[in-house]
Amino acid sequence: MNVRWPTDRYYIKKICEKNNQNIEAQATYKFSKYSLKYLLAVMHMQKIKLPFQWIWYEEWKKNLNQYDTIIVFYSLLNTNIIDYIHKKNPSARIILYFWDSITSTTFIVPENKRQICELWSYDKSNCKTYNLQYNSQFYLPSILSPVENKYDVSIVIKDKGRYKQVKEMYDKFSKMGLKIFARVVRDKTSKEQDKKLYGNGIEYSELLQIINKSKCIVELVKEGQEGLTLRSMESIFYQKKLITNNLKIKEEPFYYEDNIMIWNNQDPNQIREFLESDYKKIDEKIVMQYSFVGWLKNFKE
Question: Which residue of 124, 202, 218, 251 sits 20 to 30 Å from the alpha carbon of 91, by its own alpha carbon?
Answer without folding.
Answer: 124
